[in-house]
Write a structure and sequence with these properties.
Blueprint lengths: L6 H13 L25 H17 L7 H8 L20 H16 L4 H10 L7 H11 L34 H13 L3 H17 L8 H12 L22 H14 L4 H7 L6 H15 L3 H11 L3 H16 L6 H6 L11 H14 L3
Helix pairs in contact: 1-7, 2-14, 4-5, 4-16, 5-6, 7-8, 8-9, 8-14, 9-10, 9-12, 10-12, 11-13, 12-13, 12-14, 13-14
Length: 372
């Protein structure tokens, strides 16, 4: 285990970033919310579900990533199982950057025993992930030039931080407190220092923490209401508009845009395909996040259906499905996923290390959960 940066030092670093406007986020009341530790009644298979949900959604979506839903449907029909990746004849479930960056984050936590911003920044620079976007590539280039980790993250509202943010809560399962919010903010800003990305990442971490304890699926309205409640005070007033679909030319604060559109879609009872097509469903969070929320509003009670809809009804389908997978996995646990999905996962993080993600999850359980 390497030398870690202690929680007071991370909090001081974040406070300095707020004071110097080095982080594009307002210090909302979430940062003062004190979490209770998970007790011995907590079922760790909910953590397994959260992490495996990322890998399952990613692998189901990867072979048809970036195809428009209507094109995908003509080529593959309704995708419900793993399909062969480019140039392959088997349907082995392979990872892309969604899974890899999630589990590289886990490997950093396991190596250091805690989230260490500089260590995670360097971990992301050691290897190249299939599907890594231009924002992360710009981050890597800056870090390799010796830029301090606090300054490497471009001001990008892409979905690359959200897709890999879930592991940040692992070291806090037994401790609770307020340090999770510090870790979440610093982890998110490493690669995407943008108010939309940061506010959505912070909100999603908070929602995941709550989902882990829920005994039943929340009311459909919970997803939008909880997002608005947490994210609104975090936004810094930056206005956004989409690159296509309805949000093209509709400039506004994200919470205002999403509240209007998600409410409208729900009232009109749009299908997830109709809604996600309307929002363009690409890798820009103005498109990704409303799709995630709407799929969960419609199908969070059924993890299999939620992920299938994400895979089939969106353009950036591997990432949307990975994020949806994390949410329904946290809510329902590993046992809710079909055995064909779990058994079909390669579990690969590097060439010839099949099963590695399952080993990392076992190590997480030992280090961050264990027994009191």
């Amino acid at each position: 285990m390497t030398q870690t940066i202690d929680p007071p030092a991370k909090r001081e670093a974040l406070d300095q970033l707020f004071q110097q406007a080095g982080i594009r986020l307002k210090r909302g009341p979430l940062f003062d919310r004190v979490l209770s530790p998970k007790d011995d009644s907590f079922d760790f298979q909910r953590i397994e579900g959260m992490l495996l949900g990322v890998a399952i959604g990613d692998a189901l979506g990867l072979p048809t990533e970036a195809k428009r839903p209507e094109v995908r449907a003509k080529l593959y029909g309704e995708i419900k199982d793993y399909v062969p990746y480019k140039g392959r004849h088997d349907a082995i479930a392979l990872p892309s950057d969604d899974t890899l960056m999630t589990f590289w984050s886990i490997e950093q936590l396991l190596a250091d025993g805690a989230f260490v911003p500089e260590a995670l920044a360097d971990a992301f620079c050691k290897e190249t992930a299939r599907g890594m976007g231009k924002t992360v590539r710009a981050f890597v280039a800056a870090r390799k030039k010796g830029t301090p980790w606090q300054l490497c993250g471009p001001a990008s509202a892409g979905n690359g931080a959200l897709m890999r943010i879930s592991p940040v809560l692992l070291p806090h399962l037994r401790t609770g407190g307020t340090d999770l919010w510090v870790d979440a903010a610093l982890s998110a800003m490493l690669t995407h220092n943008d108010t939309l990305s940061l506010s959505v990442c912070m909100t999603f971490v908070a929602m995941l923490w709550e989902l882990l304890d829920m005994s039943q699926t929340p009311d459909p309205s919970w997803w939008l209401d909880r997002y608005l409640e947490i994210a609104t005070p975090l936004e810094d007033g930056t206005l956004y508009e989409g690159r296509g679909g309805y949000f093209l030319g509709q400039k506004g604060r994200p919470t205002e845009l999403f509240e209007k559109e998600l409410t409208r879609a729900s009232q009109k009872k749009l299908s997830t395909l109709e809604a996600c097509q309307r929002w363009h469903s690409g890798a820009y969070l103005v498109e990704t996040w409303p799709c995630v929320l709407y799929i969960l509003m419609q199908h969070a009670d059924d993890p299999e259906t939620a992920i299938i809809r994400a895979v089939n009804d969106t353009k950036d389908n591997d990432t949307v499905a990975a994020i949806v997978g994390a949410a329904v996995g946290a809510l329902h646990g590993k046992a809710a996923f079909p055995s064909r999905w779990l058994g079909g996962l390669s579990g690969r993080l590097r060439k010839n290390d099949d099963g590695a993600i399952f080993q990392r999850i076992a190590e997480v359980r030992e280090m961050f959960w264990g027994e009191n």
